[in-house]
Amino acid sequence: MTLAIDRRLLIKAGAFGLAALSTPGVAQVLIARGFTHGIASGEPAAHSVLLWTRYVGSGETRLHCEVSHDEEFKQIAGGGDVVASPEHDNCAKLVVTGLEPDKWYFYRFVAPDGTKSEVGRTRTLPVSDVSRFGIGLFSCSNMPFGWFNAYAHAAKRGDLDLMVHVGDYFYEYQPGHYPETVMQGREIEPKHETVTLADYRLRFACYRLDSDLRRLHQQFPMIAQWDDHEFANDDWQNGAENHDPKTEGLWSVRKAAAMRAYREWMPVSDDLYNSFQIGTLATIFRPETRVSARAKQLSLGDALKGQTDIAKALAAFRDGPWMSPERTLMGATQEAWLYKGFRDSVKSGTRWQVLAQEIVMGNLRAPPALADLTPASADPKSRMRAMVSAAASKMGLPFNMDSWDGYPAARERLLRAAREADCNLVVLSGDSHNAWGNELSLGSEAAGVEFAGHSVTSSGFESFLPTIAPRNLAAMVQETNPALTFTDTSRRGYVSLQLTPEEVQGTWHFLSTVAARTTEGVQDHTLGVKWGERRFTKA
């Protein structure tokens, strides 16, 4: 698509320093007029879908949206008007209603001068019995690490109906922080950490230039939820590890800016949490576990600070703060919504209850031998982390306090609610950068399974423990955690799921590389769960 460049905007861009942007294409797009970032759709229902585009005019511009049964737009099925306004970074969102259920549609936006956006494809959800439904699961797409080959691979598929992104759609870090070396051709803007509204908008604008990400949005509707990096690393209700109030201002201001930019640039509503019904086959619940009500993460380092008896300090931490029932990820109001949703879904005859959320739910302890296997030449912080994790593991404590493992009472409440409702629970997760197939239990009773996805590009354990062969590390972790059926700690990609009334099959797709733009050489691993069993099917 050719972009029209306006001379007045070019002069204005120079005044604001945009002409100095170094990322190829970003400066041009930010001073371009017209449709700059393609189209996207999201949050489908049986009779509606949310449509998104970005259009830069001389001010507010009224766009007309057309939804059609055919790609040539000869059979118009619906549409409407929406305003693209500079107040919202020229992003426009429109919920089109009155559509037929279980249908694929084509859509586009038309500007007042007759220019048209790209043509997108989307679909509505079914209302009755469904024999099969395909879902793609993504998380942790850090552009400087490499190419979004996972998006490219999924966008070509004909057996998927819906994409689910559970967070870290982009990363807030300044270039050179994570990763230390930015891959050529994957440069990002701004050249500093995103803190202000303008920063977050610019980072979105940069990521959404990626053609593979744009193609994924163009071909499929998406259900999306933020995780921490759309705000700042390891955030919680009132702060973040990567936020310094002394230099970056009030957390509430930064959080509001990040939330606003996300809602402007993503095909999402303003609902913090929601659910989506796939006929009688499944209810997908999309909770918010990151910034609205999350209690601050606990720290093993803080628990051991100044202590001489490590075992005693860890025991006190385990039996005290770690197990506190007051610690929550979702808050009481959202928990009540979710648990009622579980009950209503089962009572309606829906086969599967799918929880698409940000962080790993399964209980994962570090291998006790981890400290011995970390070489003396390793980074001192890595050695200390390995030693603390190994000591904690021997006391029954997990290694990641930022996951559900850091909130065991809240996790138990959720799993108990699922069992009491007689759910067939399938949890979808991201955040960790590694692949995990976890069986979830309430005591000795099976409660469900978890397909925790690996990252699109972000590095996993292979970068923190480079001296341990990934296969050996996986074997050690599985031996330490009997409920862990499968893990891969070194490869990037995505997960796809095929839902039928009798079984859910999840496949981890491992791309051969992110260092080059290719979808060749993909390797797969599949696990399945049969309805009523709540455990993975054994080979």
TrEMBL record:
Residue intervals of the Phospholipase D N-terminal domain? 37-124
Task: Name the SUPFAM superfamilies for this protein.
Answer: Metallo-dependent phosphatases
Domain PhoD-like phosphatase metallophosphatase residue range list: 137-508
- Among the Pfam families in the record, one is PhoD_N
The record's listing under PANTHER family reads:
ALKALINE PHOSPHATASE FAMILY PROTEIN (AFU_ORTHOLOGUE AFUA_5G03860), PHOSPHATASE, PUTATIVE (AFU_ORTHOLOGUE AFUA_6G08710)-RELATED
| Official protein name in the record | Alkaline phosphatase D family protein
Which species expresses this protein natively? Answer: Novosphingobium beihaiensis
